[in-house]
Amino acid sequence: MPTTIEVNKQSVEALLGSGKSKPFVIPEYQRPYAWTDEQVETLFEDLWDFTATNGGTEREGTYFLGSVVSYENEEGEQEIIDGQQRITSLFLLLRAIYTKLVATPVSERTAEANNFIGKIEPAIWRTNKLTGTVDYKNILLTSRVVNNEGNEILRSILETGHADKNAKDNYSKNYRYFQELFDKHSIDNPLMVYQFIYALLNQAILLPITADNQDTALTIFSTLNDRGLPLSDADIFKAEIYNKLESEAKKSFIERWKDLDEQATNANESIQQLFYYSMFYYRALEKDTKTTTPGVRKFFAANKFQRLYKPDLMDTLFIILNLWKVVNKGEEIEDETWSKNAKIKQTLDTLSSYPNEFWKYPVVIYYVCYRNTEDFEERFALFLNKLLMELITKYLMIPTINAVKPDILKLNSAIIASDKPNFEFKNIDMMQLEPYIQNPNRNAVRMLLKTLAYEQQDELLPEKWEIEHIFPQKWQTNYFPDESDSTIKEKIEHIGNKLPFEKKLNIVAGNGYFGKKKKEYTASKIAITNALGTSDLTDWNMDSIMKRDIRVSDEIISILNRWNNEYMRMAVDKTKDEKPSEEDLARIEEFKKKGWI
To answer: Residue limits of the GmrSD restriction endonucleases N-terminal domain (predicted)?
Structure first.
């Protein structure tokens, strides 16, 4: 069916009054009300200034308050996707004004006061169509934000007009501030009061954008939103899971969700990203190897969100998070010795320099599946090295996502079946790599330098390091009179002319020539850089680069071959009591022919 969208600018009175037939709902997945004193004051003062200059009954100006994105849900409610902060604030402001107006005894009220009391009532509450009687308990705005005690506070304020003077929640604070601002301006300029109310109800304009379904409304919101964090798929997932739980389980779920959110933030991740990683795990379980990656919300929303209701979902998200605590923050996980393994950390650090995220999915799946198995640390290390070997070789030859995407998805499913999965990547003759290593794609340089560096040290590279050009990128043209500028530029970018170097030391070294920079190299705590500084070399030229090109490419090829061979031996290594399958025997023969075992 085609998507339908209704857009029709409306006054505050008209839009809020539409809640009589389709009440406003702030859904569970929205974030709590968060307007500050500053935002409340800005709204009030801007409206007051507008009234004084362009609005009121004698002028025809309009004041644009912004858009409101919503859709009509199955209960016939206007579910607000964007604009909940603004809508809520308008309800609180109108309630503050109404409270002030009705505080005057009926016998003393002016005709204007009675008029605006009658205008405000159907904008906040449902009223009897025949008698006009107001049902103060039947409010046209309801907040259902998950785990937000403010939902009841908002309802109480709109019903009673009273906010606890000691309450610290935003609803109470902002309602009291609206009252304070209205009282102050009423005293300072009493002749403007009713003009202000008129302008607020009739000349303050909103642009409601009503979609026919949630997906369309969320898409519109994502396109329009430029005011802070948009709603994430995880916000919607939280609400879906919450609504499915029995009442006694809801509190513990929210506590776990909050804990997950805080831990993920501390690990430089997000719940949204954890769901994305888990999607690849569940796809692998379902043997889904399609190269088209579905959106996270579409994936989990399928079959009425059935995947969200898996009993192990939250546990899986916490498990995945533990992996990223190690990768992103270098944490050590209790009772998981692999997280203290220096070489595993180095391989994960090198993988993190891979130019796209496809390395992450098989790592997540392998960890989730086998972290509690015997010999996990040893097998995880070999698996990571093999994965890095495959990714480096393929990216050097074909630096695109599609070079490994289909193979990664096959590998994901293979991991589910075995902790020694078969890598169905295209075989590459290692000797073909030599020119690609010596003059690599710029996005592969950090991977290659890490691979070299970690052969000579157990510590991770410092957090802030840069790619150092041993022969500087800026040189004097008379330094190499026999070389063309284009030749020099090309050779300078070869791997033989590059080192990992601490940022602070690199700044000190600047663009000096080798003799001047050697001193800074000796101060480096990076082993391969320090070794060059303490070497007997006194000069560095184009010939030096070419010679180091050969040494570096030979060493990297040797490392990659070693990683491959170690994994292959592990893959065919069976216990004495375990009889190899026909597939295993065929693989053993294949490995023997290739000289891997």
So the answer is: 13-241
